[in-house]
Amino acid sequence: MLHSAPSSSFHHTTTLHPSPSPSLLSASSPSSSRHAWLPLRHFSFQTPPLRTHNHFALTSPKALKVNCSTSEPLKIMISGAPASGKGTQCELIVQKFGLVHISTGDLLRAEVAAGTEIGNKAKEFMNSGRLVPDEIVTAMVAARLSREDAKQRGWLLDGYPRTSSQAESLEKMQIRPDLYIVLDVPDEILIDRCVGRRLDPVTGKIYHLKFFPPESEEIKARLVTRPDDTEEKVKSRLEIYKQNAEAASSSYSNITKKIDGSRSKEEVFKEVESSLSQLQQSKGKILKSGGTEIQRTLDNLLTSFCSEKSILDTKKGSGSSSQDKWRGIPTRLNNIPHSREIRQYFYDDVIKATQRAVDDGKTRLKVDINIPELNPEMDVYRIGTLMELVRGLALSFADDGKRVKVCVQGSMGEGALAGMPLQLAGSRQILEFMDWGDYGAKGTFINIGSIGAAEVEEQDDLYILVAPQNAVGNCIIDDLRAMTNAAEHRPVILINARLKDLPGSSGIMQTMGRDQRLKYAASFESCYFFRLLYYAGTQYPIMGAIRMSYPYRYELYKRVDDPSGKEKYVILSTFLERPTTDEINDAFEGKPRNETRKGSGIWGFLSGIF
Ligand code: AP5
Asked: Which residues form the DUF1995 domain (predicted)?
C-alpha cells in the first residue's frame, strides 16, 4: 500500500508574486482585444520578488510555480510565423472560450504606444523586425500569467515562447500548456497577409485589405498599418522565426497540434475549436471524477490530436539538429552512443513523469528505462548515462527546494562471500566527482549515500536509489525494506532496480522468504517505463516500444519505415496496465482486444520484457 505524503511535510508550493506594473495591468486587460493600444503611464521593470512557503528554499532565485492541477481551466499556446493568423484565431478563441489572451506582441506595442522605458527599448527591435531581448519579454509574461484572471479563466499565450531560452524560462517556472497549437502557412501567403493587414486602433480588430475589408468607410478611414508590416521587414521576421521556431517548440512536441493555417479563418477555427472543446470536456470530466482515470482520457485525447507528435518542421527536412529526424520517440535507438538530444529526451521524459508522481503524493516509485544506451552490461561507459539521468532527476527535485539523497549500494557480504552489484563498482565515486551545478547543491540539497536504514536522516526529503540489485548470495531487499520503513512517508525512487531473483552464493536459488520479498519489491509503483521490443532472441531490428509516463497509460508503438526510408514510431494501442505478451502480439497483428488468443503469436518478444 502506498502512503501519501502529508502536505505539510512534503508538498512545497513555491509561488511567485510579482508586482505587475501599472502599465502591464492596463495594457493587458483580459478583453479579447489583441491590438488595443491603451495609454500607459510608467513601467517598473524589476525581477519579481519571490515568496516561498518552503522552508528548504534554495538561495538561488526560484521560479514561479503554476500548479498543473487537473481542475484548472484551459492553458493554450499558439504559435506560428508572422501573419500566420495567430491574432485572428485568438480573437475567436477568446470569444468562444473566454480565456485570457496574452500576446507578447500586444503587450510590447502597448508599451511602445505609452512611451514607457520598456517601450522605448523595445521599439527599435520591433520596428526592425528583430526579437525584443528575452529578459524584457519574459518578465512581462510571468507578471501577466501570475494574475488572478489568468489563473481563474485559463490563458491563451500568443507569441511566446519564441526562443529556446524563453521556452526554458517557462519550464523553470513550471508553466506548461495543455495544448500547443502551431499554425502552418506557406511563406508566400504570409507576406501577402502581412502587407495587407490593417488594425483598428479603436476596437483592436484585425482587418485585411483583401481578405477582411473593414465594414464601413468610417472604420476604413481610421485603420493603421503596423510599422513592421513592410515586405522587407516581414521577410526578416520570417527568417528570425524560422531560426528559432524549432528550438522554441521542441519542449512541446508531445502536445503539439499542427493546423493548416492557409485555409479560410472559419475553417481554421473549426479545427481549433474542435480540439479545444474536446480538451475542455475532458477537463470537465476530470473535475467531476477528480481522478487519474480522466487524466488518461486527456492523455488519449492528446495522443489522438497529436498523432503525428509533431515538432515544428520549418526547415522541411534540412534541419541541423538530430531531433529533425524523429517525431515523438527518438529513432535509431540501436545506434550508440546516443546523441545528446536523444539522451535529453529520455532524461526529460523520466523527470516529468517522476515529478508528477511525487506531486501526486506517491512515495514508493520505480523507473524502468531499458534502452541500449542505459544498459551497462553491454559497455561499462553506459553507467555514465545512468548517472547523468540520476543527476538530472535529483537536481530537478533540488530545484524545488527538496533535499535529495542519492544512494548507491556498496559491496555486500563479507570475506569470500563479498559481492558487488553488477556495474555499480565505483559509481558512488563518480557521483561524488560529478558537477552538481553552480549553486553548491551538493552537500546541501544533494547528498550521496548508500542503501540501508542508517542512511535515512531527518533533513532528507526524498531518496533516489541507483539500480538497487541483488548481488551473488545477498539480497538487497531486506536493506531496502529497512530503509523505506525508516523513510516513512518520504518518497523513495528506484532507478532500474533488479530485484527479481535471489541467487544464492552457490548459484542455487535462495527461496527462503522469497515470496514476501518479491511482493515487497512489487509494491513500488511504476512512474516511468520504457522498453524496446525485438523479435525473441535478437536485438535487431527494433520492432517497437512500450512507454508509460505517469499518470498516463502504457503506450504500445510499432517502429515503421516511411517511404522516404526514415523510421518513426506509430502508436498501436494504449493500456491501463503493462500489456502482456499476448496483448502485444494481438496489437501487432491488428486483432481486436478480446479475441481469443493462440498459445503463442508470431511475435515472440524478449521474455526479459516482462
Ligand atoms: P507579434 O505581434 O506577435 O507579431 P508576429 O508573431 O509577427 O505575428 P503577427 O501579429 O504579425 O501575425 P499573426 O499570426 O497574429 O497574424 P494575424 O492574425 O494578425 O510580434 C511583433 C513583434 O514583437 C515581433 O516582431 C518582436 O519584435 C516582438 N515580440 C513579440 N513577441 C516576442 C517574444 N516572445 N520575444 C521577443 N520579441 C517578441 O493575421 C495577419 C493578417 O492575415 C491579418 O490581416 C488577417 O486579417 C489575415 N488573416 C488571418 N487569418 C487569415 C486567413 N485564414 N485567411 C486569410 N487571411 C487571414
From this structure: 343-585
